[in-house]
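Show me any protein, keeping tokens residue-aligned.
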Amino acid sequence: MEKVTNVYLTDYIPTIYTSPRTILYTQNGKEKSSNIFAERNGVIIIVYNSTRDVLVLVKQFRPSAYIQQVAEDERYSEVDTNKYPVKLGVTIEFCAGLEDKHMTSEEIAREEILEECGYEVTVDQLEKIGVIKNLTETTGANSTLYYCEVTDAMRKNKGGGVDGENIEVIEMPVEEVITYASNSNYVPSPINFMYGLYWFLYHKYKKDLK
């Protein structure tokens, strides 16, 4: 991971990926409003390397995860990265990407696997799990989940992302992933990671797990 410095929390700066909006509506005769982020839909891919019995994961710094670890009264001046080390904002996730191109979700998933994880697959090697709703107070975007099994022979590059992405590929034995996800104190991964892991263990992983 690169060194992160000069961390500040500021007013929202618009981007092409999220748009802050307020929805006005009437529910049971009462006027209401809800602040949302109109996010793009995306894909998430569970990548399993059967050659070495590992799940192919990505590790990266997530600013939103980091700032939640900083005391609220210390977020609006420069954050002390010695007191709050960068590792507090590093997450482990499945390969994923936004549907931000004129491509099918399968084609985007295939591209993300190559760019982030370094494996070249075909769209017919992707098994669609389903579509889940990122249903929170602020976003209702959809994520299409896929499963893909790869081998060492399909590795074409080291991965790590494109266009300045700073992604580290983590190939973790399945038993280690289970131990990681079983930490009752804190698991620095999104809820879709937990869902995807349990889906994989229930539907695909045939070993006797104790």
